[in-house]
Amino acid sequence: MSDLIKIAVDAMGGDGSPKKIIDGIIHNHKSNNNNFFRIFGNKNEIDAYIEGKIHQDYYKIIHTQNVVKSTDSPLEAAKRGKDTSMWLAIESVKKKESDIVISAGNTGALLVIAKLNLKMIENIDKPALSALWPNKKGMSVVLDLGANIECSSKNLHDFTIMGASLYKSLYTDEIPNTALLNIGSEELKGNEIIKETFQILSEKKSKNFNFLGYIEGNELMNGNVNVIVSDGFTGNVALKTAEGTANFITDELKEVFKGSVLGKISAILNYSNLNRFKKRLDPRLYNGAIFIGLDSPVVKSHGGTDLIGFSNSLEVCTKIVKGDLINKIRENIK
Per-residue DSSP letters for 115-161? Predict the structure, then answer.
C-alpha cells in the first residue's frame, strides 16, 4: 500500500461533518482505490460512518476532539490549539506523512494555519487561492480568488507560472493559454501593476504556457484562455459574480418550466437538454479550491457542498499529486 496517494482529511470542517466528509470519502473510494485517507477528527463519530464501508488498509483515523469552528477568526483558530483536526491534518503534510491536505472548514483559518505550518516555495512571495471554472471548451484555472487583495507585478507573474503549473498537473498533455484579467484588451488599458505584468510576461517567453495578453470579464467562459490571473480582490468579485449568475439562470429556468402547463410540457420535451445544462452548471463538479505557492498542496472544499462535491474535490487532490504540482512550480519559477 506504500504506492497509494496519502490524503490528509480534516473530517470536522464544513456543514454536516463528519458524516458528509466520510460519505464523500466512501463515494470517492468506490471509483478510485489509489488513495489512502489519513482522517483527522473525533474517532467515535467517524467510526460510526466509515466502519465496514472501506477496508482498513485504505484509511487511518487520528483522533482529536478539538475543532476549528466556522465562526472562528483566523487568529482565534490559530490560538485554539495545535490539536484541532485542521491543524493536525496540515501538520501531516508538513511532516511528509501525507502528500496533500483537504478541509471543508473555515477558509480564513485554513489559509492562516497552512501558512504557519508550511514554507513558501523558493522565489515565490505570496501564495494564491485558485479554482477550476467551466468554459465552453472544458475548464479554466482562475487565481487569485481572495488570498491577496493587493499584488505586485512579480506576484501576478508568479501566479501565472503557478496557475499554468496547476493546469499542467490536471491536464498533462496540454500547453495552457494564460491571460491577465483586465478592463480591456488593449495594451494601454489597466493600472500600472497590470501593465508592468503584461510587459514581463510578454518579454519572458515560456515553453510551459502561452501568454495571450489581457482578457475581459465577458470572455471568461469562452474557453480560449486556460489560466486567468488577477489580484485577489478582482478575482473574488469575478468568482462571486459568476456563481451568482449561474444560480440566477438555473433558478429562473426552474420557475419558467414549472409555472404553467405549457412550461411543464416544454420541460418534459426538453428533459435531456435541461439535465445536461444543469449538470454543466453544477458547482459540485468544480468543487475544490487550491491554495498554491506553499511547499505542500492545500485544497479547500466548499463548506456547504454535499458528499458528491467533496468526492470531486478528493479527485482533484489525486490529480494534483499525480501531476507533481509542487515540483512543476519549483522548476518553472526558477
Answer: HHHSPBPTT----EEEEEEEETTEEEEEE-SSS-SS--HHHHHHHHH
Dump pLDDT digits (tens) for 113-149: 999 999 999 999 999 999 888 888 888 999 998 888 8
Instruction: Output the CA torsion 67→69→73→76 (10° steps).
Output: -40
Reported as a single tens digit per residue, the pLDDT across 142-181 is 999 888 889 999 999 999 999 999 999 988 888 999 999 9
Q: 230 is in which domain, residue-wise?
A: 125-287
Domain count, the chain: 2
* 94 to 52, 55, 88, 234, 298: CA distances (angstroms): 30, 26, 10, 31, 11
Quote the cell numbers at residue 60: 487511518
How many other CB atoms sit within 10 Å of the CB of residue 327?
12
Which of 143, 181, 182 is CA-nearest to residue 292? 143
For residue 306, is the peptide bond before it cis, meaning its omega torsion is within 30 degrees of 0?
Answer: no
On whether both 102 and 132 belong to a single domain, the answer is no
Using one digit for the tens of pLDDT, what is the confidence trace for 73-113? 988 888 888 999 999 999 999 999 999 999 999 989 999 99
Task: For residues 57 and 80, give the distance between their C-alpha atoms in angstroms, rounded to a whole number.
Answer: 32
Q: How far apart are CA 90 and CA 236, in angstroms?
A: 24
The stretch 190-206 carries a mean pLDDT of 90
pLDDT in tens, 244-276: 777 777 777 677 666 666 656 665 656 566 566
Residue 273 lies in a domain: yes
Q: Annotate 154-170 with DSSP letters as a single string.
A: HHHHHHHHHHHHHHHHH
Whether 183 and 131 map to the same domain: the answer is yes
Phi, psi of 53 (to 5 degrees): -95, -30
| High-pLDDT (> 90) share of the chain, % | 57
Q: Using alpha carbons only, how large is the chain's radius of gyration in Å?
A: 21
pTM: 0.86
Asked, for residue 189, whether it belongs to a domain, the answer is yes
Question: Residue 222: how many CB atoms within 10 A of its CB?
Answer: 12
Element (H, E) at 194: helix 192-203
